[in-house]
């Protein structure tokens, strides 16, 4: 049989017969190698490709093809043979498909389409862009509404009614995403975005401090709220990390909840290695040195972490101690509580009190509660409400809230209900006592002074080393001095001084009468009222009031000194106390005024800080030897140029402006300092 080539199998029989068949190259020897001649395959251009790819151009003269779009925009197309005028002769379908899917080809194609676009097409595209902007603006309104619903803790079902309100106000909103399900999705997206930003801030911060506090949510679940404090653009910032349910209320449970809050932000934050301080209230579960949360944190992250105790919480504890030890303070508290309970749990009693106020011409306010998490603000508000005089001039003889409550108790004292009658007689008797009325005014003055100090402690910019501005250390010293002065004389312009002046004026008007009457808001007061009307308070004229005032002041001063001993420069051997006090060397207001004394200033404190925070400083690339040199040069530089700047302005410039933030690595300590002294917490002994 004659041997045939491969091509002969794919040709017609007649053509195959006319084509000569090459002689076989096989030898007769069975061991000879088979030598088969291979023929190179040639690719040809196919006309149907022009219909498949509208951009394709074929040149018969050069037998090449190129791209109409890419050849027009050579810079955009880049290095491709399809953009070359000579084209390419690689006639492969796969090559055309790959070029058609390339990004640069698509860009060139769109540029060519836009260039050839007619005015109608341009108008359609412009209208499409306008519609897209309108849709984006509408979605932004709906996202803002969803954020408002979440921020105000409203149910998601209120989302639709909020959108209806905006439509009524003139906004054009379609019905898309007009339901509570969409609101939940929006809130979820917003939460994820905020968490991402928070994660970035924590990740970029070299040092952080954490603040924790327990609370109960609306479903009566015990939760832990976690904040962190960082230095952002040279200013301290408090950031909410999370609100996590506590599985167990012991130290390990609280610590696990804290770690879970940071875990939800992502593992890349590295918060544990950056933490230099932790703040909480004074509960043993938080700040217990052996088994508290701080002990667990120090065991895992490092013993250098400084524990802090909430300063307003210390103030609350001091005042609670005074209430327990001073009977007159406790009497005021219980009177305010009985007044609140009388009207809070009985709509009938509140209605009758308002009716009585209308007869007296008094605008009655709802009595305030004294039982709350914050003892001082609650008692202060309740006392201010009770003592508020009526009338536009605020004169003490005008009927007020005190008058309406007194007459209501007078009327209900004859009630057939023994409990109501007994409570009313007790309250009425206390409100008629002149020494009790005077002591209430004294407490109002005292609470006003203490409340100002409490607000000072809550300011976000209170920083430990500042001595040229009103801050925590000066605040507690001024508070103690002011309270001690109130045992000698009344607060100038205070409520007690105003009461005494009014009673003295009544005494002068009734001079010569055998039995003068003294009134407060139209109510005749008894007891030591005559002594209050004399010029100048004395132990002889008002022994009960004077004894209660002095005992209260002595007790308050004692407990304030105990609770804030670390602020009053008392000696402490703890390393954390020394570390916090050592940061004073970074306050240029406390530096020596002579340049020769400035050279050695702060060297010992800096060495202690380098040793105490060595592990966390090393992790952030701070060289101890270089820090000592930089501190010396920084002191000289600031002393010569920036002594006129405030503490905040100086360090904001040092940590944010070039070349200071790059030249002085000693600014690491300012980062740590801001995280140590937050707006709610201070050193625990």
Estimate what percentage of residues fall within beta strands: 5-15%
List how many beta strands DSSP finds: 10
Shape: elongated
How many domains in all?
5
Walk me through the structure.
Helices cover 55% and strands 9% of the residues. The protein has 685 residues and is an alpha+beta fold. The chain has 5 domains: 48-116, no CATH class; 119-190, no CATH class; 205-303, Nucleotidyltransferase, domain 5, CATH 3.30.420; 318-563, no CATH class; 575-683, no CATH class. Strand 4 and strand 5 (235-245) form a beta hairpin. Helix 7 (119-151) crosses helix 9 (180-204) and helix 20 (434-457) runs parallel beside helix 24 (543-563). The protein is elongated and about 135 Å long. The chain starts with 12 loop residues before the first helix and ends with a strand. The model is unreliable at 13-19, 21-37, 463-470 and 676-685 (pLDDT under 50). InterPro entries: Znf_C17orf113 (IPR057456).
Descriptive labels:
two-stranded antiparallel ribbon; Zinc finger protein 862; 32 helices; alpha+beta; elongated; Znf_C17orf113; 9% strand; Nucleotidyltransferase, domain 5; 685 residues; 6-stranded mixed β-sheet
Could you provide a short overview of the structure?
Helix content is 55%, strand content 9%. With 685 residues, the chain is an alpha+beta fold.
Give the topology.
Elements lengths: L12 H6 L29 H5 L3 E4 L4 E4 H5 L1 H4 L15 H9 L1 H14 L2 H33 L6 H11 L11 H25 L3 E9 L5 E11 L2 E11 L5 H13 L7 H4 E6 L3 H4 L5 H9 L4 E5 H15 L1 H18 L2 H14 L14 H13 L13 H12 L5 H15 L1 H24 L14 H14 L9 H15 L8 E3 L2 E3 L3 H4 L10 H21 L11 H8 L12 H4 L4 H10 L1 H6 L4 H18 L5 H10 L3 H4 L4 H9 L4 E3 L2
Parallel strand pairs: 3-6, 6-7
Antiparallel strand pairs: 1-2, 3-4, 4-5, 7-10, 8-9
Helix pairs in contact: 7-8, 7-9, 14-15, 14-24, 16-18, 17-20, 18-19, 20-21, 20-22, 20-24, 21-24
Pfam families: zf-C17orf113 (PF25431)
Organism: Merluccius polli
Protein name: Zinc finger protein 862
């Amino acid at each position: 049989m004659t041997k045939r080539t491969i091509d002969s199998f794919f040709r017609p029989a007649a053509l195959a017969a006319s084509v000569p068949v090459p002689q076989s190259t096989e030898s007769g020897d069975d061991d000879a190698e088979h030598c088969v001649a291979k023929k190179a395959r040639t690719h040809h251009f196919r006309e149907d490709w022009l219909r498949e790819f509208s951009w394709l151009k074929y040149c018969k003269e050069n037998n090449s093809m190129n791209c109409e779009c890419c050849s027009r925009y050579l810079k955009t197309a880049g290095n491709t043979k399809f953009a070359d005028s000579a084209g390419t002769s690689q006639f492969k379908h796969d090559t055309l498909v790959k070029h058609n899917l390339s990004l640069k080809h698509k860009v060139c194609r769109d540029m060519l389409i836009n260039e050839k676009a007619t005015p109608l097409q341009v108008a359609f595209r412009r209208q499409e862009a306008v519609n897209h902007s309108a849709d984006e603006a509408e979605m932004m309104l709906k996202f803002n509404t969803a954020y408002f619903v979440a921020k105000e803790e409203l149910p998601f079902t209120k989302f639709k009614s909020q959108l209806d309100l905006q439509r009524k106000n003139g906004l054009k909103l379609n019905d898309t995403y007009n339901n509570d399900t969409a609101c939940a999705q929006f809130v979820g997206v917003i939460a994820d975005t905020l968490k991402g930003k928070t994660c970035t801030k924590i990740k970029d911060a070299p040092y952080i401090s954490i603040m924790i506090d327990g609370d109960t949510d609306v479903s009566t679940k015990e939760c832990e709220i976690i904040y962190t404090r960082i230095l952002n653009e040279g200013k301290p910032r408090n950031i909410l990390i999370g609100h996590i349910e506590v599985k167990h209320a012991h130290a390990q449970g609280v610590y696990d909840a804290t770690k879970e809050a940071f875990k939800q932000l992502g593992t890349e934050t590295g918060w544990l290695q950056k933490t230099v301080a932790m703040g909480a209230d004074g509960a043993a579960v938080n700040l217990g040195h052996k088994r508290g949360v701080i002990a667990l944190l120090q065991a895992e992250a490092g013993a250098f972490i400084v524990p802090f105790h909430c300063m307003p919480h210390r103030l609350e504890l001091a005042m609670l101690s005074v209430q327990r030890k001073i009977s007159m303070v406790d009497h005021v508290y219980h009177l305010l509580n009985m007044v609140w309970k009388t009207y809070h749990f009985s709509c009938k009693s509140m209605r009758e009190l308002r009716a009585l106020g209308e007869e007296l011409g008094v605008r009655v306010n709802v009595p305030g509660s004294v039982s709350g998490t914050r003892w001082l603000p609650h008692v202060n508000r309740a006392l201010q409400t009770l003592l508020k005089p009526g009338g536009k001039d605020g004169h003490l003889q005008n009927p007020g809230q005190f008058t309406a409550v007194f007459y209501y108790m007078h009327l209900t004292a004859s009630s057939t209900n023994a409990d109501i009658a007994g409570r009313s007689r007790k309250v009425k008797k206390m409100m008629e006592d002149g020494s009790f009325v005077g002591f209430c005014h004294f407490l109002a003055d005292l609470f006003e002074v203490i409340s100002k100090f409490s607000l000072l402690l809550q300011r976000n910019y209170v920083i430990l080393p500042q001595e040229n501005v009103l801050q925590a250390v000066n605040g507690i010293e001024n508070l103690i001095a002011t309270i001690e002065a109130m045992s000698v004389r009344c607060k100038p312009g205070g409520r007690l001084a105003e009461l005494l002046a009014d009673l003295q004026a009544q005494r002068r008007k009734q001079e010569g009468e055998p039995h003068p009457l003294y009134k407060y808001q139209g109510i005749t007061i008894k007891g030591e009222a005559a002594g209050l009307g004399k010029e100048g308070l004395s132990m002889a004229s008002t022994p009960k009031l004077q004894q209660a005032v002095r005992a209260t002041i002595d007790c308050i001063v004692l407990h304030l000194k105990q609770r804030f001993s670390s602020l009053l420069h008392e000696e402490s051997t703890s390393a954390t106390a020394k570390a916090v006090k050592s940061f004073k060397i970074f306050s240029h207001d406390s530096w020596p005024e002579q340049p020769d004394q400035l050279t050695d200033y702060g060297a010992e404190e800096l060495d202690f800080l380098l040793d105490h925070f060595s592990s966390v400083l090393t992790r952030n690339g701070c060289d101890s030897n270089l820090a000592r040199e930089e501190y010396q040069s920084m002191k000289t530089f600031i002393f010569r140029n920036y002594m006129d700047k405030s503490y905040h302005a100086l360090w904001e410039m040092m940590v944010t402006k070039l070349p200071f933030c790059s030249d002085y690595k000693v600014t690491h300590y300012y980062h740590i300092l801001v995280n140590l002294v937050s707006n709610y917490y201070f050193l625990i002994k």
